[in-house]
Amino acid sequence: MKNRSEIVLDSIIRQYIRKASPVSSGSVLEDCGLDISSATIRNDVMGLEQEGYIIRPHYAAGSIPSDKGYRHYVESLSDTELPSDEQFLINHLFYQVEDRLEEWLKLATNVLAQRTQSVVVVTSPHVSSARVKQIQLVSIQSNIVLLVLVLHGSKVKQQLINSEQAMDQRELTEIAAGLNETLHSMSLEQIRAAQTKYEDFELKVVRTVLHLMESEYNNSFQEDMYDGLGYLYEQPEFKDSKRMAKMIELAQRRNILKTILPVIPYDYGVKVFIGDDLKDSPVPGCSVVLSRYGLPNEPLGAIAVIGPTRMDYQRNISVTGYVASIISVLVTELYGIKTNTNYLKERNY
Fold it and tell me: Is the pLDDT of residue 99 over 90?
């Protein structure tokens, strides 16, 4: 695409995002500030239409960006870094809440919804690859023991276990130390295969660990958090009651992201899904800006901004990437893992 056509397309998309109405050639000429005639602008607009970057209902109508146009616009964005003053504000908000992943995810959902004026879905860390971080055994009564299971990814589970014989805290601490040595960083599948090595009370503990991990896995897909549904009411694209009703239905089922984007990319970095990327979506006319959060080799969650195709991509990409980076760093600090100073850069946050 020629340089002037790039400028014209950029103007059409920016104005359409802002106004939600077709953009006239005269408005493009005024916005671009180019020293060219209106006839030249009209020829450029015609060329963009022929190449599929914009749509015009008829010859004299204003321009509307196509999915191809939006895709080109997103791929051409050069500055997606969040302004430093906003980075400071968001960073401050996260360090004011309790040191728990659940609280961070709730805050992330709220912060993103407010700043993008869109629906935001934040998933808990996917635990299909959850691994044991620590096992603690605490004496409650002579024959009752509390098992505290800590999984990588900020998950803590507890379960009472009956012991056939009385054990004091010293014995329980020794058993826990032995189990931590053998089960540390093991996955659900690995522990299931290794349980035959244990017997008596240790076997009961291992089986309880398996039960807790299996329960966590089965429940993990129902823990999505969302916010911002009300902002869609203000978007002209969602004046269609059927489209809005479908989005509300998905929200009530906590199934927005999985339905609109069934396959979530595993790798880091902000991803944008437009048009054909979401061709099977039951809610047409939407785009998704998504980023993973977490640490290498640990359970990962996803943060997604969902709105009309006419969303502010530059804004949404920058704030989504920054919030994802904050959560990743907080999780690192929570578990005392040494932070790699290049961690965020390596993942294109």
Answer: no
